[in-house]
Amino acid sequence: MKINNNHIKEATHLLRNRKTLGTMLKDVWKGHYKMTFYTYAVAVLAIAYAIFPLDILPDFIPVIGWVDDGILLFIMFQQLKKELVRYNEKHATADIVIIDSKIKK
Fold first, then answer.
1. For residue 66, how many other CB atoms are within 10 A of its CB?
2. Distance of CA 39 to the CA centre of its chain
3. What is the C-alpha separation between 15 and 47, in angstroms, rounded?
4. How many structural domains is the chain composed of?
5. pTM for the full model?
6. Confidence at 10, pLDDT banded by 50, 70, 90
7. Dmax over Cα atoms in the chain, in whole Å?
8. Are 86 and 80 in contact, with CB atoms under 8 Å apart?
9. Which domain covers residue 57, as residue numbers?
């Protein structure tokens, strides 16, 4: 797979939005926001697979052993990016409703 600028931009999306990601995770923890089941499943499975000592490709093989972990973490980051967009859209519409209701009064 050839890496281009679009891949680099996508990879840095979570890093640039780390405050929003932190806010989203706090809201999830407090019960103010509910992520999709798929996002929960991907995150839990990717982290568990990266930590668990049994892998498809053993980690003691240099570089090759980390490829499967990296692929799953990449999938997790892509899903978190999608969830972050969903979170931002939800809060943007919530802000519009609040502003709109203030105007009506």
1. 15
2. 8
3. 18
4. 1
5. 0.65
6. low
7. 66
8. no
9. 5-104
Contact indicator for 87, 33 with CB cutoff of 8 Å: yes
Q: What is the C-alpha to C-alpha distance for residues 9 and 80, in angstroms, rounded to an integer?
A: 15
62: region left, alpha or beta (phi > 0 left; psi from -120 to 50 alpha): beta
| pLDDT class of 105 with cuts at 50, 70, 90 | very low
Question: Is the distance from CB of 39 to CB of 79 less than 8 angstroms?
Answer: yes
The DSSP annotation for the chain comes to: ----HHHHHHHTHHHHTHHHHHHHHHHHHHTS----HHHHHHHHHHHHHHHSS--SS-TTSTTHHHHHHHHHHHHHHHHHHHHHHHHHHHHHHHHHHHHHHHHH-
